Amino acid sequence: MATPPRKSLIPTTFYEQAQKRRGLYWLTPFIVLILYLCVMGAFFWMQRIQNDSVMFVTIDQEVRQQRLLMLVVALSLVIVVSLLALWRYTRFRTRAEAALLAETGFRRAMENSMSTGMRVFDMQGRIAYVNPAFCRMIGWNEADLIGRTTPFPYWIPGRHAEHQETLDLLLSGRTPSSGLEIEAQRRDGSRFTARMYVSPLRDHNGDQIGWMTSMTDITEPKRIREALTAAHERFMTVLEGLDDAISVVADTPDGLELLFANRTYRRFFGAQSAGHSELLGGRLGRFTDETIETYSNSAQRWFEVQHRMLAWTDGRRVRLQVARDITERRTHEEESRIQQEKIQLTSRLTTMGEMASSLAHELNQPLTAIANYNMAAVAMIKAGKASPETLLDALEKGARQAERAGKIISRIREFVKRSEPRRQRVSVNRILDNAISFAEIDARKRQVVIEKHLPDDLPDVLADPILIEQVLLNLLKNGVEAMEHSEYRTLHVVVSNQAPIVEVAVIDRGHGLKDPERLFEPFYSTKSEGLGMGLNICRTIIESHHGRLWAVANPDGGTIFRFTLPRAAQTEPNPPENHQELQA
Q1: Distance CA 5, CA 13 (A)
Q2: Residue where one domain finishes, among candidates 357, 382, 415
Q3: Contact at 8 Å (CB) between 282 and 341?
Q4: Residue 286 lies in a domain
């Protein structure tokens, strides 16, 4: 069963109120009818009394009496019908008035409840109507405005000509559909901005009788809009002025859609999403904030790219990408790396130059021995006393001395040759042996003994062996020189496993540190003939291996230099033997 439609409650309420005020009008015909019946009843009663009191009545009088009675009855019927028609008409009129009053009250309630100011001009430009919202907006009451002509009290003093132009535009019917933005002055002197919309006012015949205007106070929304616009302009000025390429894209079925790109991005990649996709570096679908460095083939530049996900203005998840041009930095880093390699090579050559006399003496011993063994073999052969066993023993000893000299030369050549830095899995013991073999040459001359202490479970490290040998040799030489006048004649090298790193400590008992805070500064040296670059280069090498180099005072006197190196992963393959051993 269909539910009957429900009427609106708002007009019903006004109609009921109107019924309460107009409910007695339709009772008027009933009251008249009752009074008429009372009069007729009195008339017939008086006729009856008269008939009873007259003794002699003629025939003509009786006829006239009947005719008069019929006339009265006929007139009574006419009056009753007229009263019924009047009652019906009164009832219809009462209902129409009640409906009209309800509609008028409803419309008046709507107008009074509106926050939009309503105002009506007649065709001559006089104010014909204002609603309470308009009065509240400007501070003037209805009596002060109805019938007023220009200048209106809410016009701003000194700008009447501008307001008159706006009024002429309004009365001409040429106002834009988007409305007009005007300024007005309240009764207290304060000013506000309003947006006004205009429409023609027509009567029931469709003829225009005036102009209806609606006004909304937009002072606060305009202030907020201007503040937002200024903030947006400042924000866009900052974004457009950045040297970083900033872009925002959204994932769509057709690919990446470019939502925003600043001037730097447009200069490198244009107004397309291809540059964003190129700089993603294969991270499509990965919601990470990691920073990567990638090379752009289209821009021929290096970029440091940071990528993250964020919520766009419409609620979509989009990709924000900030790409910083690091081409110059990469160029400077490469030049710095080359200069660092040259400095390291120079440092090694300087070290070898300082050890030249010691190396010459070290090489002179096996060469002298080789010469002696060969001369002895020649003398025995000339004397005819050479036996195979004697010659074989002399030749084997000479060969061992030649191998010894060859190893020394090979180590020197490997140490000072220029090569690209190459990190590999290498044994710490082999690095110590090669460095100590060089340092012992100078240590024996100064009568210092170098002892190394290694744990049994010492793991391999990930490092460039030549560079670490350079660091260790520099620290050993400094320790040996510091202990030249010390009573304690042993220099200790202690290696400890401190997962995930390996720590190497060079412990001397020399004169100690005078200014430890400046020890690693460039061109600062405690030696009169030193350049002050050795320890600085050592720290740079260790930090490039993700380690740390520092010095502390030895409680027993002297200095302890420590540096750390990262352990090599267990899954990394061992390098070939020719990278671990020095060939004779």
Answers
A1: 17
A2: 415
A3: no
A4: no
Same domain? For 390 and 427 the reply is no
Nearest-5° Cα angle at 386, 383 to 391: 135
> Within a domain: residue 92?
no
Please tell me whether residues 465 and 430 are part of one structural domain.
Answer: yes
Contact indicator for 267, 301 with CB cutoff of 8 Å: no
Q: Which two tokens stand for residue 451?
A: 């002892």
Token readout for 179 is 């409305």
Same domain, 134 and 154: yes
Residue 429 lies in a domain: yes
> In whole angstroms, what is the distance from residue 140 CA to residue 513 CA?
90
Max distance between CA atoms of the chain, in angstroms, equals 216
Alpha helices in 384-486 (DSSP H): 388-416, 428-445, 465-482
DSSP track, 199-235: EEEE-TTS-EEEEEEEEEE-HHHHHHHHHHHHHHHHH
Tell me the DSSP string of 161-193.
Answer: HHHHHHHHHHHHT---TT-EEEEEE-TTS-EEE
166 Cβ contact partners less than 8 Å away, ≥ 6 residues apart: 180, 182
Buried-exposed string 247-271: b where 16+ CB fall within 10 A, e elsewhere: bbbeeeeeebebbebbebbeebbee
The CATH number of residue 367's host domain is 1.10.287
Pair (436, 346) in one structural domain = no
Domain count within the chain: 3
Q: Is residue 273 part of a domain?
A: no
User: Which domain range does residue 164 map to?
Assistant: 115-223
- The CA distance from 70 to 68, in Å, is 5
The token duo for 368 is 């002298």
Helix (H, G, I), strand (E, B) or coil at 157: coil
For residues 397 and 456, membership in a common domain is answered with no
CATH number for the domain spanning 123: value is 3.30.450.20
* pLDDT tens per residue across all 584 residues of the chain: 444 444 433 344 444 544 555 445 556 666 767 777 777 776 677 666 666 655 444 556 667 667 777 777 777 777 777 778 777 888 888 888 888 888 888 888 887 888 888 899 988 889 988 988 899 899 888 888 888 888 899 999 989 999 999 888 888 888 888 888 889 999 998 999 999 999 998 888 888 989 999 988 888 888 888 888 888 888 888 888 888 888 898 888 888 888 888 888 888 888 888 888 888 766 655 545 667 888 888 888 888 888 888 888 888 888 888 888 888 888 887 777 676 666 666 665 666 555 555 555 556 656 766 776 677 777 777 777 667 777 777 777 777 667 766 666 665 666 555 555 577 888 888 888 888 887 887 788 888 898 989 888 888 898 888 778 878 888 888 888 888 888 888 899 999 988 888 999 999 888 777 665 657 665 445 554 444 446 777 787 788 788 888 888 888 888 888 999 998 876 544 444 333 332 22
Q: Are residues 516 and 427 in the same domain?
A: yes
Residues 217 and 348 in one domain: no
CATH code for the domain in which residue 475 is found: 3.30.565.10
Residues 490 and 559 in one domain: yes
Distance in angstroms (rounded) separating the CA atoms of residues 84 and 97:
20
